[in-house]
Specification:
Blueprint (H helix, E strand, L loop, with lengths): L3 E4 L2 E3 L5 E7 L6 E9 L6 E7 L4 E3 L7 E6 L4 E6 L8 E10 L6 E5 L3 E5 L2
Parallel strand pairs: 2-11
Antiparallel strand pairs: 1-3, 3-8, 4-5, 4-9, 5-6, 7-8, 9-10, 9-11
Amino acid sequence: QVQLVESGGGLVQPGGSLRLSCAASRSIFRLNAMGWYRQAPGKERELVASITTGDSTRYADSVKGRFTISRDNAKNTVYLQMNSLKPEDTAVYYCHAEVRRGYGSGVYDYWGQGTQVTVSS
């Protein structure tokens, strides 16, 4: 099994920055992509950003130009740099890994425990 451990959340003022980190307990065989999701109270969990093993990235429209996802393969770690934060960014942020099954088709998921990001003055 793989554990994803997140860090870097906290309270920041609007316009501020945070960098989230997600460290996997080991390298992940058959990894497709890693990403960050977020969920605010009463809202559905949504994809914020993802990065594939080929380093292709995608972002939610609401964070384009403000957030950057990156990874360090040697450290089995993915990062989310969040700049120009807005109150609307307040949510629990979850690290996610998509892994190919060793048989048949399809994928399965690993999830971090979540880290709270609060943007408020």
